[in-house]
Amino acid sequence: MKQLERIINDLVPFHPTIVLTGGEPLLHKDFIPLIKIIKKNGLSCNIFTNGTLLSKYANEIINAEIDRVMISVDGLGATHDKIRGVKGSFSKVVEGINKLNSLKEQSGKSKPIITINCTISEGNYSHLIDMLEICNYFKFDILHFNHLWFLSKEQVDEHNQVFQNLFGFPSKSLEGLIVPDLNIDVDILWEQIIKIKKIMPSVVFFPDLNSKEELLDYYKSPPCPFKQIQEMLRSLYECEDLTQWRCNTLS
């Protein structure tokens, strides 16, 4: 914990937004003390979570004055549970967000901002529009759809070769981003995107692809995921002074 505190202290002059992710940050025994250190230093703090422990820690999250909670929701009810592989996980998310909202109202606080992140995948792309019904389950501030971040085997092999040449040993860090035989019908997905944008224009898609041709190109030739992360953070926090990510051969 002392090492984490030193790192936070070193970051203070740069005024970053600290984002806690994982894995699942709410599983870390010191996540609340860490958030208090971040906030004590006048920094913004956001967390990415699967939402299943929100109800347990809702009071602590409110009292710690977290700025934004970003919750992964893959669909409604059974769709979310199937993709997550845990029966009842959607109900836990609903319970947690409702408790968080209730405590916000009781305390008169506007934060944390609640963002719902839905990752587009084979398990939900054909009925994404169902996600608009999520308003019937709980209140939130932003609904954010993310296209999959993935790479071709050729891109990963090229990265690994460059890494080997530069550092003298192989890297396996990107191999988890290879998605073999991705089965997404772009025509159906594009129809879903158009319908959602017509019904709820405020919904955010990332990246925001403006034609079916761009969508098809995205899924045929995946872009560098590190550039995607940078652009996503820019869109979420409206920050123009982000650390530059080096993409090397993946650019």
Explain how this protein is built.
- With 251 residues, the protein is α/β, with parallel strands linked by helices.
- The protein has 9 helices and 6 strands, in the order αβαβαβααββααβαα.
- The C terminus is likely disordered.
Distance between the termini: 36 Å
In round numbers, the mean pLDDT is 86
Strand order in the sheet with the most strands: 1-2-3-4-5-6
Helix/strand structural class: alpha/beta
Q: What gross morphology would you assign?
A: globular
The CATH topology is given as: TIM Barrel
| CATH superfamily caption | Aldolase class I
> Per CATH, which architecture?
Alpha-Beta Barrel
Total discrete domains: 1
Text of the CATH class = Alpha Beta
Query: Order of SSEs, N→C?
Result: HEHEHEHHEEHHEHH
| Chain oligomer state | single chain
Q: Give the % helix.
A: 40-55%
